[in-house]
Amino acid sequence: MLSRRKKLVVTFFTSSAAMATEKLCKEKNIDGKLISAPRELSSDCGIAFAADVDKKYELEQALDEKKIEYENMVVI
Length: 76
Hints:
Layout: E1 8-11, H1 15-27, E2 32-36, E3 47-51, H2 56-65, E4 72-75
Antiparallel strand pairs: 1-3, 1-4, 2-3
């Protein structure tokens, strides 16, 4: 059985916050992409942002700096 690589998933209350995160990450050269929110995570808007686990601190800092509100940030 193949093991899946862990990833950092950020869920949002609004789709506009998810899209703002994607734009911010492109500007800050933080690799990641918008995904459908995994079923096991609650997401009001149904969209999440996935990134490498090692980008957690950098992503948290960028979101706080731009005051982008997110619902949850977990490693799955």
